[in-house]
C-alpha cells in the first residue's frame, strides 16, 4: 500500500499523532485505550524478543571460543558505554545545575537508604542472576534471569551433536 520506507511511516505517524493530540485536546481521550493497548502489546513482546534473539545469537556463534570473544567484547562495550553515560551525566549536571534556587522541604515520607537490601558479596550478585525457574523469571520480567537462561540455552544448542 505504502511505498515509503518504515522509518518515514513512523515519523509521519508520530507527526500526525502530535497534530491530532494538539488539535483535539479534550476529545482525544477516546483514543487513550488504544495507546494503553499498544503499550501493553509492546511490553508483552519484550521478553520473548530478548529470549529468542540472545538464544539464536549465542547458538549461531558455533563454538565456545567465539562465545568467549563475543562475551569479552560485550563486556568492554557495556563498560565503555556506562563510563560514557556517567561522564555525560556528571558534565550536564554541573552545567545545568538542576535544583539550584529551590528550597528543600522535608516530606513526612523520608527515604532511608539503609533500608535497601545490599548484596553481601560478588557471589551473591551472581547467584541472584541465576533464576530458580526460567518460566517464572520470564513471567516476572526478571531480565537478568532471562538473559542468563538465554545464554545457557544457546550454549547448550551449540553443544548438540547432529541435527534432529
Automatic annotation (TrEMBL):
InterPro entries: DAACS, Na-dicarboxylate_symporter, Na:dicarbo_symporter_sf. Gene3D superfamilies: Sodium:dicarboxylate symporter (1.10.3860.10). One of its GO terms (cellular component) is membrane. Its main location: membrane. GO terms for molecular function: symporter activity. It is found in: Membrane. Keywords: Membrane, Transmembrane, Transmembrane helix, Transport. The chain crosses the membrane at residues 7-24, 75-96, 143-162. It is a multi-pass membrane protein. PANTHER family: AMINO ACID TRANSPORTER, SODIUM/DICARBOXYLATE SYMPORTER-RELATED. This is Amino acid transporter. It comes from marine metagenome.
Amino acid at each position: 500500500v505504502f511505498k515509503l520506507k518504515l522509518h518515514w511511516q513512523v515519523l509521519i505517524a508520530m507527526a500526525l499523532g502530535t497534530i491530532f493530540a494538539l488539535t483535539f485536546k479534550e476529545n482525544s481521550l477516546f483514543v487513550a485505550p488504544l495507546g494503553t493497548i499498544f503499550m501493553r502489546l509492546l511490553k508483552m513482546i519484550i521478553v520473548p524478543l530478548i529470549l529468542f534473539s540472545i538464544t539464536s545469537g549465542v547458538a549461531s556463534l558455533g563454538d565456545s571460543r567465539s562465545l568467549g570473544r563475543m562475551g569479552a567484547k560485550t563486556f568492554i562495550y557495556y563498560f565503555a558505554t556506562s563510563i560514557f553515560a556517567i561522564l555525560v551525566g556528571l558534565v550536564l549536571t554541573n552545567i545545568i545545575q538542576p535544583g539550584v534556587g529551590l528550597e528543600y522541604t522535608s516530606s513526612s515520607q523520608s527515604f532511608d537508604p539503609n533500608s535497601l537490601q545490599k548484596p553481601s558479596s560478588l557471589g551473591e550478585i551472581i547467584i541472584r542472576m541465576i533464576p530458580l525457574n526460567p518460566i517464572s523469571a520470564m513471567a516476572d520480567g526478571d531480565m537478568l534471569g532471562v538473559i542468563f537462561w538465554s545464554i545457557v540455552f544457546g550454549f547448550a544448542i551449540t553443544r548438540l551433536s547432529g541435527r534432529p
